[in-house]
Specification:
The protein is an all-beta fold. The two termini are 36 Å apart. The protein has one helix at residues 11-19; strands at residues 46-48, 58-63, 69-73, 77-81, 89-90, 100-105, 112-116, 129-132, 140-142, 157-158, 164-167, 178-181, 189-190, 192-193, 203-206, 213-216, 222-225, 231-234, 255-258, 264-268, 271-278, 281-289, 296-301, 307-311, 322-324, 332-333, 343-349, 356-361, 368-373.
């Protein structure tokens, strides 16, 4: 089902794509795209940000506490800017491949955690995690199990106790696709689960309200960890492609975010699903439906709790970025300044300038660009 990048077709993916359909079960379904959240009048909301000319397939952006910027490009690796995007320096020293996928800043110590990409042919290049303690001047490999295509679209996630969890697509049996480090990336161990991850980790997130970790999979729904990534339990039905009777349309959980009350929202083949706590479990409501090919990709939030969403290319849904100002109940277009029918893959606020930044991609060519809001969002 991993189809966001030009990777050789995987047999399971074809099967899943063919079987994908709208979910059943007891979850309710709504499609509230009401115009209660209009775009600000008078000019663009977004503007393109300068990146190196060699960067054509930008895939990820991160910021550290010094307002230094970092990007990952699928062709040319990783870059750093110390002047807010005016100039860039390539930072690939020590990497075994220059196919960049994600880059995160560890909030506990400022280390960079980067991941690479296998490329257009599965297993043609190493898929590794790397750690840098000097802003990318040098890198060390973080040990993990083997991956077949790429790491999680969100990169790694950092727990409240400073553990961090990384993972990715199609980890060979019997290892799962998730690994947790309790010592800053020097070593990792396989994350254990009460139910199989299914060999894939597509998205990861920390709930800022409840402080638990969440993990999105390819077919087995979303999982939660209450002990900083060491153990995981399944908290949603699987995808309909995996269980047509009891499943919901939640295959390919690439992105997730959390509302002001700690409810979980994740993007999937069916659009956006939102949780509500029911005793010891969760029920899930489809708050923004995918009616065609607009499967969910990126989700994020700002300090006010406004939520942002991007989806796969869809000629019937040219809106690139949706925003919700009511905890995900309703969504409306928030993409002025971005060409239509592109894809929003990542949303992150830079704490220095308080603007929202997004990785925007062409779902046909996989070219990617960096956009930022004209004005601060918080």
């Amino acid at each position: 089902m991993f189809s966001a990048k030009p990777i050789a077709v995987f047999p399971l993916i074809l099967l899943i794509a063919a079987m994908a359909a709208c979910g059943g079960g007891t979850s309710t379904t709504t499609n509230p795209q009401s115009p209660t959240n209009p775009q600000p009048p008078g000019g663009a909301v977004w503007q393109k940000v300068n990146t190196p000319s060699a960067v054509t397939q930008l895939n990820y952006v991160a910021f550290n506490s010094s307002n230094h910027w970092f990007i990952a490009d699928r062709n040319n690796g990783f870059y750093r800017s110390t002047d807010q995007g005016a100039t860039w320096t390539q930072i690939n020293s020590g990497l075994t491949t220059t196919l960049g996928w994600t880059i995160n800043v560890n909030p506990a110590n400022g280390d960079l955690i980067a991941s690479t990409y296998s490329g257009t042919v599965i297993n043609a290049n190493p898929v590794n995690f790397y750690r840098s303690t000097d802003e990318g001047n040098s890198w060390n490999v973080i040990p993990s199990g083997q991956l077949s295509a790429a790491t999680a679209q969100t990169g790694c996630v950092f727990a409240a106790n400073s553990d961090f969890v990384c993972g990715g697509y199609w980890a060979p049996f019997p290892s799962s696709g998730a690994w947790v480090s309790t010592n800053g990336g020097q070593t990792t161990i396989s994350a254990s689960t009460a139910s199989t991850i299914g060999g894939s980790v597509y998205g990861l997130g920390l709930n800022p309200v409840t402080q638990d970790l969440w993990l999105g999979t390819e077919q087995n729904g979303i999982l939660r960890s209450a002990n900083n990534g060491l153990n995981w339990t399944v908290e949603s039905p699987p995808a309909t492609s995996f269980d047509p009777v009891h499943g919901i349309r939640d295959g390919n959980i690439y992105g997730m975010t959390f509302d002001n009350n700690g409810n979980v929202l994740f993007g999937s083949q069916g659009g956006i699903w939102k949780s509500s706590k029911t005793g010891t479990g969760y029920t899930w409501t489809n708050v923004l439906q995918n009616q065609n090919t607009a499967a969910g990709k990126g989700l994020g939030r700002d300090a006010h709790g406004n939520l942002y969403y991007g989806h796969n290319h869809d000629a019937n849904d040219p809106t690139v970025v949706y925003r919700s100002i009511d905890n995900g109940s309703t969504w409306s277009a928030y993409d002025s300044g971005i060409p239509p029918s592109l894809e929003g893959h990542e949303f992150i606020v830079n704490p220095a300038d308080r603007k929202l930044y997004a990785v925007i991609e062409d779902g046909v060519t996989n070219n990617g660009w960096l956009y930022g809001t004209v004005n601060p969002v918080q």
